[in-house]
Each structure stands twice: as C-alpha cells, then as structure tokens.
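Blinded run. Sample ID left blank on purpose so nobody reads anything into the name before looking at the predicted structure. Input follows.
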Amino acid sequence: MVQFVEKKTQRRGSWDTPVLGHLVAVVISLLIHVLPLPVYLLGGAFSFFGPAAEELEDHETVIPIDLMLSEGDEPATVAQALPPLTLESDPTSIPTMPIVVDAGTAVSVDAAPESTDADTPSSADSGFDVLVALDSSDAAEAFDALEALDAKRMDGALEADVVEKSENDAALVSEAASPMPGALDADIARADRLDASVAMAAPDAAHEAGNVGIEGGSGEARVSRPIRDPIGLAGDARRIAPRDPNVSVLIYPERIRSHPLAIQFAPTLTKLRNWRNFFGGTDLDPIRDTDRILLAGPQLRDSSRVVAVVRYNVPQQRVRSAIDSVVQRNRGQWETKSVPVAKAHVDGAERYFVMTGPQMLVIVPPDGLAQALQLPRNLRFPQGGQEAVVLFLRYPANAFRGLPVKLPTSVEWMRFSLSINPSGGADAKLEAKDRDAESASTNAPELTKIINKAMVVDLLFTQRRLLDPVTFRAEGDRIRAETHVTDNQLRHILSLMAAKIEQVDKEAPSPAGSR
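Blinded prediction complete.
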C-alpha cells in the first residue's frame, strides 16, 4: 500500500505480467511485423526488376560534335555530308509525326509547285483546295481562316455564303443551303466541308503545301494544324446533331480495329453505361460491328438529350434484332413510318431508333424524330482523316470537375484527337481556346505541370508514369500540345479508364426521367 493514497485509487492486480500475456504480445508482434515482410520485399523486387525502366527509357538523342581542323585540313564536301537530321524543337514533347528537313533543291517561297502527274485531278476537282498547291504561309492563312469560321459557328454569327464545289459535293451544298428545322446554316456547312477537306487531305498534299503539320515547313514560323470539329467531320450526319453541343465525340472503330490493342478497346467501350443500357445483352460489338459513331449533346453523363449516329457493317436484320431486344426489354414498340422506327424507354428517357438507310442507325430524343426522318436515305458519313477519336468539350473545366485534373475556367473549349500510328502506339493532340493571348501564355505552363503530375499514378508499392512528359505551348489565344503514346502506355491507360468508368457509373446520379 502507498501512504497518503486512498484505498480505492490503489493499484490493483498482479505486479508482474503473466507468462501467457507475454506470449500473446509476442505472437501479435510477429503477425504485425514478420508476415508483411516478404510482401514488401517482393514489391521492392518488382519495382526494381519490373518494366518501369523500359517504359521511361530515353528517346534517341542527337549530340552535335564540332571537329577542330588543323591548318591545311579540308572540310567535308557536300557529297560526303551526312543526311540532314530530324530534330525535335522540344525534347520533352514527342510530336505525332516528326518533320524531316529535306536537303533538296532550294525553291523560292513564291514558286509554283511542279505537277507530278498529268492525270492528277486539280484542287477544284478533288475538293482539297485548302491544302494542295499552297506554300507554308498560305497554308497558315488557310488554317487561320478555318479557325475563324469555327469561332463564328460557335457564336452563331455566320451569314449565308454558299460556295459551289465539285460535282460530288454539289448535292451536299444544295441540301445544306435549303432551309430545314434545326439544320446548320449554309456557311457552317461550308466551314465543315473545309474541315473535312483538311482532315481527308493526303499526306503528300500536306507535303506539297510546305510540310504543314506540327511545325511549319519553313522552319521559321511554327504552324500547327488545327484539330477539326467532330461535327464538321461527320458529313451529312451533322444535320441531326444539336446546334452548339457542349460535348461531341467522333469515334472511328474501323481504324481502332487495325490496332493490336483493339481487343482491349471494345471491353472499355462496352463498360460505358450508355452502351450497356442501349445494347447490353445483344451480340453487337462497338469495335467489331460499327465503323463510325457520332455522339453529341449537352453532356454524356445524362444521355436523355444525346443524339447518336452509328454506321454499322453487319446485316440490317441483325441490327434490327438487337433493337427489337431493346424494345422488348424496355416496354417499347415499332412504329409505321417511311423507314423502320422503334420507340423505347432507355437509360431513363424515351428514345427513337431510326434506321434511316443502309448501314445507318440514328438514335434521337422525341423532338428529334421529325428531323431524323428527313435525313437522306444514302446518308454520307465520310471516313475522315487518320484520327481514331476526335473529341470536343465546351468549358472543359466543368467536364473535369471532381477529377484530379483541374483545368482553368478561362478555357472556352477544348479539342482532342487520337490517331493510330502505323509504326505502333498512337499520336495524341490537344488544342484549347483560352480567353485571350495573355491568359493562354499564363495557363500553358500551368497545364504542363498539372497534366504531367496527373500522369504519374500510385500503384501498390511504386509509381508509374502513364505518358512521357508533355509540354503545352501558347500560340495566340490557343494552347496546344502533342505527344506519342506507346502500346504499353495505351494498355495501362485503357485499364485505368475501364476502372474509372465503373467508378463513375456507381457514383453517377440516376438519369433524368428515370423510373
């Protein structure tokens, strides 16, 4: 007993810990410290010997060396000179297609290009009058004109100004000029036709135009080819698209099929809630059975106002059977119209499935049915250029809300394209319009930090960089960036996308009008 301490506060129990207590404490300590040790060692081994070093391997670097010649030594002649090297203006960014400077015969800027083939159609006949037979400065002016037309289309301030093109495009121009409810203006059609001309121009045409691409052919002024609007690339399919959508995406499964990772693209698309609600349970595959898909609307999370145009490559009866499964599953019905039309309540809203013609399916909300029925039976949905995916977002800061990437609110719109590279992997390009040139020059380096930080993800015991470092640059009020994505990087990105889609579907609220 301790003096001057009341009995009720005296220490109770044994002064020594029992042997059993010691044993229990030792066992718990072993479980906590010893068992996880092999796991940590294994994780460290994977991190050390894993493929991360291969993904982050440095690209080929050219180191110029100046040789000191003594008196009497003759420098190498032109015939002995090495071929000109391809240099990247920014080592941190990987261009989509490197521009090789050709040390050929010097040609003046104003010199007219030589005709390579007497049978080659003229620019007026081919419809590629934007790029063919232009020098680099004219090409830059043409691209500036196209961007101005895009800006006017977004502001809704274009006036009627139809320009006749070739006989192949005459029908398209006349239909675009005719008044239709909800149709695009004739000048917008003209701007879209220019979009398609730039996108479909052959690589040799761009070469004749002065190597207009990621960098200008002159080497003095950098001329970036603008990313065309998805709706402008969709041909006749743009007529059913809503005016000034916040989101539009054009997918070319016919190009994705040629990529080695096509088998992984399809499961990623089929995980989208919209595809599952529409064609889940059917045997339709978005990569195998379709060639082109256009989606446009206020937002893709709520598909009640989204318009979809699909060009498929399977027999019409197979698509009709898939639609009939949707009709039966969602208390819908077939209606008697000039073309096959089905109505069903899908993804929380009423939809109409309109088989407008051979290999074409249009999905619209009820107020778009009349316009869908006015579409031509042989609806033109062109192949476009080399892109596999083209995306447009208005006010992208709102679209990325809640994601690790926080974009500046001053950015008015953003376009993104992903092209399959024949040598492997894919080439990604991004273009965004900021409020003004000053804001763009401020936000470009900030975006470089934000995106490069977001491209490093934490795994169990290590970190992995999804993409090589990319540099955003300001060109007036535009922010642009390009990079190359390897097959291995694409594989990891698709896996993360599939996991993110599942997470977003679980957290997303019920669509408008859901029952």
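Unblinding after everyone has recorded impressions. The first strand starts at residue 247 and ends at 251.
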